[in-house]
Amino acid sequence: MNVLLKGQLKFLSEFYDIVGVSSEGQLLDEVEQREGIKTIEVNMERGISPLKDLTSLYKLYKILKREKPVIVHSITPKAGLLTMLSGKMAGVPIRIHTFTGLIFPTRKGMVQKLLISMDKLLCSAATHIYPEGEGVRKDLIDYKITSKSLKVIGNGNVNGIDLEHFSPGQITEAQKDLLKKELNIEDAHFVFVFVGRLVGDKGINELVKAFSHINKKENSQRQSKLLLVGPLEQELDPLHPDTLREIENNPDIISVGFQKDVRPYFAISDALAFPSYREGFPNVVMQAGAMGLPSIVSDINGCNEIIIEDQNGAIVPVKNSEKLSEAMRKMKLDTDYYQKLKMNARPMIESRYEQSVIWNALLSEYKKLIKEKDYRV
Fold it and tell me: Which Pfam families does the UniProt entry name for this protein (predicted)?
């Protein structure tokens, strides 16, 4: 909520009384102050934990009975299931869930069946289902998750992009020079950047392999750097040992960990490399585009909606380090091709994903649903 819905809650609070419920702890204080809304903390486990889940379900039910909202709107998978069930139990008339990404298409066997069953249960308790993009919508239909109407709000994405915040002009030349010096990056280097969690599911194993390949193959040509911006999470989805060794030992791979402000790192980079296995509608790809960077993305939901091949980036098959390496090599060496993509990067975000467009589309949807229920707020 602190990041995903930044600014949106404040906008909506101009029209409605908004209550934010999340398990984010002290971050909720920041949300409350910044967005000007009431917040309530309810701990919700990301994994399956029956006893804790029942406790969270009961707490949500009590909150909804007390607050008596006309609309309850959930976003993340576990919170969505608990919120839709508690909302139905509490008699909330309009129960909306937005699917930002689906896990089950990348799973198999009993795990996939369990995840599908959970999403079907979620949808049965919701009154309205909003896929974040057309790819998510297609998966919900193909897997027969629900027979209810599925509507993508605007051009997709939950919150849009703040084009004033994510703008190349926000970072000065002096700031860029200082950061490059700190990271030992020269002006002649072609910098690929990845922003996100450093886990297998984000395609980091393939990215590191592809990058190492092009650097070894073309060490006499323009040198590249790979800038990794994000936390290393080894608990749930660890990287291969070979990948970890390469990150640690390759002087051309720079890992800077989690950064609260990623804009300076976009500003010193030439292209985003984002070979994730699954996404809903990735903010990182929009942020990079808004900062003027073309992107190399995997052919998955969201990514293949934001990026159009040979216009503002390149699309490669999932889990294919060879095709990823080819795309990185072309972007690095083909100057005319790169400049065309770079020129289109920001305008193609501006025209489709500007934040106020997304917010107003959601507001219009709320107003329509409330009018249909004949409520006055």
Answer: Glyco_trans_4_2, Glycos_transf_1
Residue 377 lies in a domain: no
Rounded to an integer, what is the distance from CA 258 to the centroid of its chain? 15
What digits encode the pLDDT tens for the residues 187-196? 999 999 999 9
CA distance 182 to 1: 32
- What CA–CA distance (Å, rounded) separates 18 from 69? 9
**The two three-digit tokens of residue 19, written as one number:** 């209550």
Domain hosting residue 248, numbered range: 168-353
CA-CA-CA-CA dihedral for 51, 57, 61, 62, to nearest 10 = 40
Packing angle of the helix pair 77-90, 50-67 (nearest 10 deg): 50
Cα of first residue to Cα of last residue in the chain, in angstroms, is: 24
Residues 326, 367 within the same domain: no
C-alpha dihedral (153, 156, 160, 163), degrees to nearest 10: -120
User: Are 306 and 215 in a shared domain?
Assistant: yes
d(CA 119, CA 51): 19
Per-residue pLDDT of 68-102, as tens digits, reads 999 999 998 889 999 999 999 999 999 999 998 88
Looking at the fold, whether 123 and 189 belong to one and the same domain comes out as: no
Per-residue model confidence as pLDDT tens digits over 219-239: 556 789 999 999 998 887 899
Note whether 297 and 186 are same-domain residues.
yes
> Is residue 119 within 8 Å of 102, Cβ to Cβ?
yes
In a domain, 1, yes or no: no
